[in-house]
Structure formats: C-alpha cells, structure tokens
Input
Amino acid sequence: MQIFKEMSTAVRVQWLIWLMVLLLLFFTLLPEDSLGQSVTYALLNTSFYAMVVYGNISFLYPRLFLKNRKVLYIIAAILFLLSLSITRAYLMMWLYNLLFNPKPDATIMLSTMQLLRNVFGMLTIFLLGFVLRMAIAYFILKRETEEILLQHAQTELNLLKSQVQPHFLFNTLNNIYYEAFREAPRTALLIERLSEIMRYFVDESPKDKVKLSTEINFLENYIALEKIRIRHEIGLNFIKDASDDCQLPPMLLMTFVENIFKHGIDKTSTRNDIEISLVRQHNRLVFSTCNEIPRQPVSSSGRGSGIENLRKRLVLLYGDNFELKTEKSNNHFIASLTVPL
Output
C-alpha cells in the first residue's frame, strides 16, 4: 500500500511540473504571439520536451546506460535528439503556415540556424532530464540504504531478544526434566525430546543446510511426541540408508511426516502402519513415506497446503532438479521426494 501511495504522489508531482512548464512557455510566448499561437506552441513544445525526458529515462537509460552500453547509448541519444529536433522544427513551421500565417508558403525550408537552435534546445532538456534521473536514482539508493541499516539494527535487536528468551525456556525445561525424571522417567524423556525440537528450531532451522543426522533426530523427536496423542501403538518402520555427512536444507522432510499424523492416522484403529524410507542413491537423497488411508476421513481445520508450499520451496532451492510425487495405491497414500546432494 505504501508503494502505491508513493507512486501516486510521484505521478501527481510530475503532472504539476509539466503544468508549470506549460504555463511558463505560454506566458513567455504571449507578449510576442497571439493567444492561440501561444497556446499551440506551448502545448507543442511541452509535448516534445516530455518525449525527450521520458524517451530517455524510460527507454534509453534503463536499456543501454544501466547495462553499461555507454557508446551505444550516446549514439542512440544523438539520433533520438536529431529526429525529434527535425520533426519539431518542421511541425512548428507547418502549423504556423496552416493556422497563423496570413500568406502561407507552400515550401517549408529550415535554415541551419533554426535547426541548430532546435537541436540545442532539445539537448538542454535531455541533459536536464538525465541529471534529474541520476538524482532520483541517488535518492532511491540513499533511501534503500537507510532502510537496510534500519532493518539491520532491528534484526540485531531481535537477535538479542531471541537469545534471551530461548535460554530462559531451555533452562526451565531442564529443571522440569530433572524433577520429572525422579517421578516419571517416561514423561522426562518426552520433555527432553520437546527441548531438542525447540533447540532445533532456534539453532538449526535458520541455517541454509543441516546434517542429515540432525534432521533425522528432529523427525524422530517429532514422531515420539505425536505418538502421545494416539491411543493405540503405531507400527513404524523407519529405514535409514544414507551417510550422516550428507547435508540438506532444514525442515525439508517434515511436511510428509506431518501430513501422516494430520491426515493418515485413524485414532480409533488398533492398527496404523507407517513406513518411512531415507536412502541415498547416486548422489541423490530419496525420501518416501507410506501410510494407510483411514476408513473415516480425518477432519482438518484448514486446507492442506503443505505439499504446495513444499513444492514452491523446492523450486526456489533446486529449480527443476527435484522430483516430488504423491499418489494413492491399494488404500495407501505414498509420497516421495528426490533431491540432489
């Protein structure tokens, strides 16, 4: 919304500037020419000045100057100014003969001095427009730099805050763990897993890549906590056939496992079999899950967008160098992901 406001303000300022140029030309011509001639020439000159300015800053400057094609930019600018200058000069002569000359001359000839005057006039407007464009670029860069510095300062402040809060929470969880360990060792183990998950979110998830063993440990902790909510035992077969020195982006495998517990577990059934496979094949990591489809659809609070969000993230990370498949077969839901290592 702020961007649109700034754009609309810039457009209004430009219209105001061109209105001032039009009025300045009109009142400059009025003492020597008639009212109609002053209006006509003021409109004509303002239009050509606008073509010079916007032709440069909208076409020549971004397509040639900014792409470091300076020589071609100078040649194109000279040809552009010459063509506009000649067109403007002949158009002014033609309008004068058509509308304001009591004795129209069928032949329209321009002297060298008239042509040069037009060229230098256009060149002046071109240089003013170029300087204006450079000034705008400077102020935009200055504003962006100030915003980056402000964001950097805010990020540092948030980082300091985030370092204080998790440490307090981890210390509290450790105290609860030791208290629980004496009375209920199983509960203490779950608290320990929760602590490891939270530490993963704080320490590992901001990284570009994490070790495969770290990601596996995170998945196992998540699965252990999810099992608490399920009445009957789950038949889980987790196949791991990849070296621990492999690295991958964090939270990349979580979506499949999360979907199993959201949509693939029948809490009323005594049988819920899950198979998870993590295998390295020819310098590619193949991750797949398979679970039974519940007889009764599991109600969900929102639309399942996890797979689509994962696909968008994979495109950003790997382009088209990945495979993501989901299918239903023999009352089973199968998902697989293959990414390069």
In short: The mean pLDDT is 78. DSSP finds eight helices and seven strands in the chain. Residues 303 and 330 are 24 Å apart (CA to CA).
